[in-house]
Amino acid sequence: MATMTKAALKAELQNDPQTLGYAALVAANNDVALAALLNDKTKGGSIPRTLGTASDLQSCVDSAEYAALTGPKQGLWTAMLIAAIGNGVPLANAGFQAQAVYIWPNAGPTLTALTALLTRAGSRAEALWGDGASVSFSQVSDALRN
């Protein structure tokens, strides 16, 4: 993911590659509205979710599927949940994904829900500069005028 720079932010605002409607706000010097638009979670499309918490993971589980798992698979799932306590687990990690595919039936409701958990709605700032990125009105002002 690219690092946000003043030049990159200025180019985004001047070129409006996703046609979000920056031009009128730029002309009006409405830096607050521009920052809000860049940070709007409905404007960036689907972005990768970085971490999944134990609660996120467990909310995906279909109870009938869990009951049908073998003891070792239930144990592995429990270990994965324990690993997710606190800061969460990196959902893009190949090992994590391989374990989930091993545990849960292919095309079942749990694996389907876990797969959906890999992405989330994101802001334009996050689409450009990574999960959790945001832009302040002062950054917008600095990019456009300095």
Structure overview:
The chain contains ten helices and four strands. With 146 residues, the chain is mainly alpha-helical. It has two domains: 6-42 and 122-145, no CATH class; 50-117. The strands form two sheets. It has a two-stranded antiparallel ribbon with strand order 1-4. It has a two-stranded antiparallel sheet with strand order 2-3. Helix 3 crosses helix 10 (137-145) and helix 6 (71-84) runs antiparallel to helix 7. The chain starts with 5 loop residues before the first helix and ends with a helix.
Q: Helix segment count?
A: 10
Q: Biggest β-sheet: count, sense, barrel?
A: 2 strands, antiparallel
Q: Could you say how many structural domains there are in total?
A: 2
List SSEs in N-to-C order: HHHEEHHHEHHEHH
Share in β-strands: 5-15%
The radius of gyration computed from the alpha-carbon positions, rounded to a whole number of angstroms, is 20 Å
What structural category do the secondary elements indicate? mainly alpha
Tell me the total number of β-strands.
4
Helical residue percent? 55-70%
Q: Unreliable stretches, pLDDT < 50, 5 or more residues? A: none
Major sheet: order of its strands? 1-4
Distance between the termini: 25 Å
Question: Globular, elongated, flat, extended or rod-shaped: what is the shape?
Answer: elongated
Mean pLDDT: 95
